[in-house]
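HUMAN: Forgive my ignorance: could you write out one protein's sequence and C-alpha cells?

ASSISTANT:
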Amino acid sequence: MEMSLAEEYLLLALDDTSGRPLIGAQHLQFALAGATVAELMLRGALDVSDGVDGGQKGRFRVTGRATPSDPVQLEILGLLDGRKPKDAIRKIGQGSFARTLRETLQQGLAARGVLREEQVKVLGLFPSTTWKTHDPAPEAAVRERVLAALTGSADLDEAMAALVSLLHATDLIRRLFPDQDRQELKRRAKEIADSEWAGAAVKRAIDDLNAVMIAVMASTTAATTAGTT
C-alpha cells in the first residue's frame, strides 16, 4: 500500500492497542507537519529559494513542477510560500490547521481500512476518539523498512532518511524497537539525521523543522517539570 511520509509517521506514532499517540498531541502535530513539508520538498513541489530564482533567499518557494492532488497538501503549499522554514512549521504545526491535518490523515487511513475509529470516554465521563490498528500489515511493513535502514541491511533513500530524522527528533526510535539495542539504533538514527542524505536546501530545511520540534518538546517538558515542583 502506498502511503505518504506523514501517514507512515502517524502509524508508527500511534499505540496499536490504545489507539492513542505515543507522544504528546502537540509534538505529533508538529511532526506530521514536518513530514508533509519534507515530502513536498522531496517531490519537487517546494524548495528553498537561493535568491536568484525569483523568490526570497532562505524562504520557501512553490516550484510549480509537482502540484499535489491532495487538497490539504495543496493548501499547505500556499501557506508555506514565502515563509522561512522555522516560521512555516510553526504556522502549520499548531492550532486549527494542525488538527485538521492530523484528522485528515487519520480519516484517510481509516477509509482504506488501516485504522479503526473508536469513540471512548475518558474516566467514564469525557468523550474521546481513538484510532486503533485495523490492518496491521501496512505499519508492520514500515517498521520493517525503518529497522532495515537503522541496521544497514537495506539501502537508504531520501524518504526513509527523512522519516528516520523525524522519528529521531521526536524520540520515537527507542519506543518502536524495544527488543533491539536502543543505544545503537539511536546512534544510527542520529548518524542518518546528521548525514547529507538530501540536497543542501532540502537538508537545511528539514534540519530547521526538526530544530523547531525539539525546541517545542524541550519547552513542554520544562513547563511540565516546573508545574510539578
